[in-house]
Amino acid sequence: MRAGKYQGWLPTLFVGKLLQGATVGIVGAGRIGAAYARMMAEGHKCNILYFDPYQNKALEGAVNSYGAFLASRGEKAVTCTRVTSLQDLLAACDVVSLHTALDASTRHLMNTERLRQMKSDGVLINCARGPVIDEQALVAHLQANPDFRVGLDVFEREPEMAAGLAECPNAVIVPHIASASLFTRGGMATLAAANVASRLVGEPVWHSPNEVGAFLDGEVAKRPHASPSIVNAKELQLPTLSK
Fold first, then answer.
1. Per residue in 59-98, pLDDT tens?
2. Is pLDDT above 90 for 146?
3. Which of 26, 73, 80, 226 could share a disulfide with 50, CB 3.0–4.6 Å?
4. Alpha carbon distance 215, 241 (integer Å)
5. Using H for helix, E for strand and C for coil, what is the string for the chain?
6. Backbone phi, then psi, for 80, in 5-degree steps?
7. What is the pLDDT of residue 220?
8. How far are the Cα atoms of 34, 54, 75, 96, 229 from residue 191, in angstroms, in the given order?
């Protein structure tokens, strides 16, 4: 619109596929992956497949319960199923969203071979870390498959991008801004400060590290006397705050 390229409506102008009823694959169904899966199921009535070393019974229960609710209203139910093969997930899904940690086992998880296992008109979203995708292999795949699309907020060698990525019209690229809200960035700082302060005075670790709202809402003086989340708390043998 700003460039003055809009010449009027056409039936085929910027036509894409509906998300509704699509199959969405979640690679890494932890806290963030599970939240994303529920948004897609409850917001777009997508069926969920997920690949994770651990079964997420809470996610399965939430999505399948919503599916039962839809069925009770005469609508098609949505489902959530764990798969044991990443290849099966990639081949079956219309959209694949990455939510893994970055370690030796996930670096270049999406490489030339695995990109080819996805649908030729599939969508790949990276909500994890840049090096989870082999970016040069991704550029080659985007160039060879114009109907394939990718959404990237993170990059393998930030702030640089792989050669050719910026020129791929089927890539949506934004500068690592997924957390760019005042609440989120402020919350990140608050939790980090609370962790430091609590360790200095020897407070226990919060009993629910995935539920830290108590540290973010209300007055600072009324926050729990605990560290919000210490990743290696068990290894350090730190006591946990009882509920």
1. 999 999 999 999 999 999 999 999 999 999 999 999 999 9
2. yes
3. 26
4. 14
5. CCCCCCCCCCCCCCCCCCCCCCEEEEECCCHHHHHHHHHHHHHHCCEEEEECCCCCHHHHHHHHHHHHHHHHCCCCCCCEEEECCHHHHHHHCCEEEECCCCCCCCCCCECHHHHHHCCCCCEEEECCCHHHECHHHHHHHHHHCCCCEEEECCCCECCECCCCHHHCCCEEECCCCCCCCHHHHHHHHHHHHHHHHHHHHCCCECCCCCCCHHHHCCCHHHCCCCECCCCCCCCCCCCECCC
6. -135, 120
7. 81
8. 21, 27, 42, 30, 8
pLDDT grade for 183, boundaries at 50, 70 and 90? very high
- Write the class of the CATH domain 23-173: alpha beta
Side-chain-side CA neighbours of residue 160 (13 Å): 6
Average confidence (pLDDT) over 161-176: 97
pTM: 0.89
pLDDT exceeds cutoff 90 at 221: no
> Which positions are annotated as active-site residues?
129, 158, 176
Q: At CA 98, angle to CA 94 and CA 102, rounded to 5? A: 160
Question: Bridge-partner residues for 27, per DSSP?
Answer: 51, 98
List b or e across 148-169, with b for residues whose CB sees 16 or more CB atoms inside 10 angstroms. bbbebbbbbeeeebbeebeebe
